[in-house]
Design a protein that fits this description.
Blueprint lengths: L9 E5 L3 H4 L16 H12 L3 E6 L4 H12 L5 E5 L21 H6 L9 E5 L2 E2 L2 H12 L7 E8 L10 E8 L5 E12 L5 E4 L5 E4 L4 E9 L3 H16 L9 H10 L4 E6 L5 E2 L6 H13 L10
Helix pairs in contact: 2-5
Length: 308
Amino acid sequence: MLSYHNMKPALLVLAAGMGSRYGGLKQLDGLGPNGETIMDYSIFDAVRGGFGKVVFVIRQSFEADFREKILKKYKHIIPVEVVFQELDQLPEGFCLDKERVKPWGTNHAVMRGKEVVKEPFAVINADDFYGKESFKILADYLISLDGKQNDYCMIGYCLGNTLSESGSVARGICEKDKNDYLASIIERTYIMRNPDGNIEYKDEKNELQTIGENIPVSMNMWGFTPEYFNYSNEQFIHFLANNQHNPKAEFFIPLVVNNLIAAGKIRVKVLNTPSKWFGVTYAEDRPTVIAKIRELIDKGEYPEKLWN
């Protein structure tokens, strides 16, 4: 019998994309009143939600910058660790294709946590604002998994709570069974609200289809127990056998989860959240995000200054 008794869950923060997209750590852009980043709010919510440590997945090239600008803030608040995601971290027998510049994707990033995560753990993106309720719901579920394996969860956001006013978004649309377990995730691109207020997406034929406001979507906020790392290794070998020389192929979390559900190896509870997700998908989203954070502070959900 496995026991994680009295172990608080860990939070794995996928931050390896940070150095590439904006050059340096620019998307650790201050959006709160005292220069707080979206990640600062996530860590704050994770601590009060019941998480016991934070593991950041970053690229080695900006470790010094990251430790100086980021980790210093958290080290008196919660234990933190750093692990690295690099292109050449491949299983034995595989070598890096010289065309490859793109990272191997979110599940490859998750795999980097194997040496330091021995307890139930959550996975989030560094630059998404998930909301305090979501962290509490996730921590409570992970704490309830004492002694269990193959029982995972994800936070399901209402689609209407995750759109950008500045343009279309891509989302993982979730299908659930009658007991709220995940049946599958289908990635849909080009989702947006049309002028009459309905939400539409483009299907395989590039035709617009209407979709419901409250359909659950995945925003990459997952809960796993440590045997997930072993499944990931097995699946990654399989993935590379087919995609080693495709410079654009990525090893995403929903791919692994869908395969494991289809094979009957795991089940994933979809946990509904009242939280509204937001993030800076487009540069034009920035003022909206600043305004939303201000609103949450005015409502008393966050202090004016997160870290004293």
